[in-house]
Specification:
binds magnesium ion; alpha/beta; about 450 residues; binds 6-O-phosphoryl inosine monophosphate; 5-stranded mixed beta sheet; binds guanosine-5'-diphosphate; 5-stranded parallel beta sheet
Length: about 450
């Protein structure tokens, strides 16, 4: 299950729904930059690194090798869940995941300041610098924390190395290696019982024919390779990332479910063709409560962009989608959908790979009438006003993908299951039979 836009599509809610039929839920990339709000029976849970499946007592939850783990933040999350009565007994952490260190957070913050008007608008959680060290092969992994001598040696060496960067490049005070070692030895003790070879655990579950849900964080357009570079995160949220970030072969993945909001939001910097910089954008923000779960920042809001939707279907091989937050459009007189872009009078149906070109894209809109009534109580497609149904059909046609789930509110019961998202037909098979998928 992946995000089809710029993150915050409501993946937490949909993961929670799908987790009902999952034995194992796996996070395969990202770190505590993610923020998922899940509402269950009026109680609100905010998750960052722990898979949303944790709310089901018998579901095994795995933080995979492709994630980056800030142990300090993870322990806060564990403590918060414990206070709410949620057990973490079934939480497993990959021994190969990389660890966010204090210098990663410091560098993320300092680098953003240094970039000035070229800043990315990161969550300042040290995500980029942790992944950079992984690629540079100077990273510290969870397994290193587990072996005290290795931990001491690794931290001693990296702190010495990073202090040169902190002091000389960013004018920051150096870190005391001994204090960092003490701090991380404490974290290691706290997390030890959760650490496993997660690829082995997941593949054993595959052999036992268990249902495994891979939960993407962020979204397709924040993907390091396929997103709106450089305004992206440093991991691969796309479906292909699930294999790399969990140690499972591509032949084992049965289906890909995309999650998209009925409109679009984005946090941080970077081009956003359908952004509404007027009162309407503020209205969407207020109605959708569009404030970040992690940083509290106001999310930028705009109309649904079908060029992006189609792109996400292509990049991820999406079989079906969940459309969330349809209820947020309830009061709109008219609703616009971006069907293509225009640059210098020329029409474009695909996302340009040049960031400069993307920034120049003007949306070409199709205007749809609003339904001007509440939908949050609707239990089936038949309950929806005709205009809302037409809107959904139009989105499905534009994306060429069936809509399996429609979400009309934050709670579990404010959901219409249009078709079984897990056992419905595979999109590739529809193509084989020459059928263009439509709304179910
Ligand atoms: P995620 O990062 O993709 O998991 O999404 P977030 O949790 O950051 O943001 C989605 C927000 O919308 C959360 O506060 C959810 O509780 C809320 N939400 C999810 N689905 C719906 C919906 O269908 N309608 C409304 N009104 N809110 C929703
Ligand atoms: P969930 O999982 C929305 C954005 C940041 C910034 C860019 C890079 O809740 O959908 P980073 O800290 O990752 O280096 O920041 O990515 N970003 C998100 N935006 N939802 C998220 O996660 C995000 N995680 C990172 O705002 O623009
Ligand atoms: Mg979020």
């Amino acid at each position: 299950m992946i995000g089809a836009q710029w993150g915050d599509e409501g993946k937490g809610k949909i993961t929670d729904l799908l987790s009902r039929s999952a034995h194992v839920v796996v996070r395969y990339q990202g770190g505590v930059n993610a923020g998922h709000t899940v509402v269950v029976k009026g109680q609100t849970f905010k998750l960052h690194l722990i898979p949303s499946g944790i709310l089901y007592p018998d579901t095994e939850c795995v933080i995979g090798n492709g994630t980056v783990i800030d142990p300090k933040a993870l322990i806060v999350e564990l403590d918060t869940l414990a206070e709410l009565g949620i057990s973490a007994e079934n939480l497993f952490i990959s021994s190969s995941a990389h660890v966010t260190m204090p210098y990663h957070r410091m560098i993320d913050q300092a680098a953003e300041e240094r970039r000035g008007n070229k800043k990315i608008g990161t969550t300042k959680r040290g995500i980029g610098p942790t992944y950079a060290d992984k690629s540079e092969r100077t990273g510290i992994r969870i397994i290193d924390l587990m072996e005290t001598e290795v931990l001491k040696e690794q931290i001693e060496w990296t702190v010495q190395y990073k202090n040169v960067v902190l002091e000389n490049l960013y004018d920051l005070p150096p870190l005391d290696a001994k204090a960092v070692i003490e701090e991380y030895m404490g974290y290691a003790d706290r997390l030890r019982s959760h650490v496993v070879d997660s690829s082995l655990l997941i593949n054993q579950a595959v052999r036992q024919r268990k249902n495994i849900l891979f939960e993407g964080a962020q979204g397709t357009l924040l993907d390091l390779d396929h997103g709106t570079y450089p305004y992206v995160t440093s991991s691969n949220p796309v479906a292909g990332g699930a294999c790399i970030g969990s140690g499972v072969g591509p032949t084992m993945i049965d289906r890909v479910i995309g999650v998209a909001k009925a409109y679009t939001t984005r946090v941080g910097e970077g081009p956003f063709p359908t952004e509404l910089c007027d009162g309407l954008g503020d209205q969407l923000c207020a109605l959708g409560a569009e404030f970040g779960t992690t940083t509290g920042r106001q999310r930028r809001c705009g109309w649904f962009d079908a060029v992006i939707g189609r792109y996400a279907v292509r990049i991820n091989g999406i079989d079906c989608v969940a459309i969330t937050k349809l209820d947020v459009l309830d009061e709109m007189e008219e609703i616009q959908v971006c069907v293509a872009y225009e640059i210098d009078g020329e029409k474009h149906h695909e996302l340009p790979s040049s960031a400069r070109q993307f920034a120049r894209c003007q949306p070409i809109y199709k205007t749809m009438p609003g339904w001007k009534q509440s939908t949050s109580h609707c239990k089936s497609l038949d309950d929806l006003p005709q205009e809302a149904l037409n809107y959904l059909k139009f989105l499905a046609e534009l994306m060429e993908v069936p809509i399996a789930i429609v979400s009309l509110g934050a709670s579990r019961d404010q959901t219409i299951i249009v078709e079984d998202p897990i056992h419905g037909p595979k999109r590739a098979l529809l193509y084989e039979n020459g059928i263009t998928p439509q709304v179910a």
